[in-house]
# Entry
Amino acid sequence: MLEPAPLVDIPEAPVPPGAEADWFTGAGGARLRAALFTPKGRARGSVVLSGGRTEPIEKYFEVIGEFMDRGFVVLAHDWRGQGLSARELGDRLKGHAKGFKTFLEDYRRLLAAYEERLPKPWIAVGHSMGGCLTLLALANGERRFAGACLSAPMLGLRLGNVPQAAAIALTSLNISLGQGGRYARNDPGQPFDDTFDGNVLTHDRTRFDRYRAQVRANPDLALGGPTWGWLDFAFKAMAALAKPERLRNVTIPVEIVSASDDALVDNLAQAAAARNLPQGRLITVPGAHHEILMETDDMRNIFLRVFDALTGKAAPKPAEAPKPAPAPAAAAPAPKPEPAPAPVAEAPKPAPAATPAATPAPAAAAPAAKPAAAKKPAAPKAAAPKKAAAPKAAAPKPAAKPAAAKPATKAKAPAKAAAKPTAAKAAPTKKAAAPAKAAALAKAAAPKAAAKPAAKPAAKPAASKAAPKAPKPAAKPAAAKAAPKAAAPKTAPAKAAAKPAAKPAAKAPAPPKAAAATKPAAAKKPAAAKKTPAKK
# Structure
């Protein structure tokens, strides 16, 4: 259950518009304060903002407004023991804690109470102690965030000349002695200190004075020095995050923004965490004190640029889309005419598309160039056998290449080899001197030639289809003249293939009618050619 809670409003730091503060129930029934800030229009996502030790929600009004201007819903809260949330001890000024597990349970309940009102993606932002607890929540399995941006996270403390091991031992001793509720080193701090000079928090006087004015307006916001109990919590939380295996559980992008002149937390521990995080990155703000978001504009803007870079990836354009949306709505008629010239530009596109289509066609039709040679014999039909020399020039060129192509298995070689047997079988027709007989023999030999390459590679039958086309016109002009040159290829094919070639030669002297009768006989012999693949 959420109940309305107050926010401190002063002229120097007015409450941002769209604010709604509530009480929610933390671990153990503690009453804790949170506030939700909703921007106008559609939201890009949500930022969960966790301040450092002593810091109430009001201190971050300026930062909250900047996140809202970027289109984010912002959820800010007071950790238990500070701000207007329940304090752990009767003395409200004592900064006390009872272990980091209680803080993590409070954080879990905070997210559960507001989850339905927080549009995705979620970005975690934490400063100092808030950065430490945010990273701990992520390392302990919180998976609802898309990214995290941490300002000077408390991953190690600067202890002056005191070794950390000694400080941890002294803290443990005081806890064991029941002194956890006492101020560490008996130092109550100075919660109402207005002295800007010499402070180690910020270089910006205006922001320093503004927070002091808020505390004076409502002293319940004030918090003094830490107790031994708080130090014990801090050392244990930092030790947990010093384990590389724990940080490897955090798979989202984590930006760690470090202040170069930080006098409170250890920058080396921040650098180590950035290395151990799978998507960790360390950015240092030169000359900055601990409170980077309360620093001068030139320094704090470095943090905001890092945040913008992170959210540009984690929350890409959900808010920017609605902003340009009205402009395109008015300009909608303008883009519509633009598509009209687009078709004009698209019309030439088919032309180049057709050009490449024609370009590969000749490449694929390279084997079909042989029928082009067959077109030359078409002229001899009217020109008599003298022009049969043209086929000679076409036939010998493939005839010379097949000899070298015997060992090769390329598709082009079988095509040429298929043409040779036709010429080889035309050689016996030289004795008959009858072009019609040569044509008959060429037709009968064409299937045999196709069968021979089929015995070598499986791709040769494709070439054999092109081969018969060449011999049909070539037989009419008396291809017998090309036979002598092609006689050599007879020995090139397998002996089993040469035997059937000799049989048509014996039938060549027969009259033209008998030659026509022998054609079917030659067509049956391809069955013998099928036996040759069986030998494989």
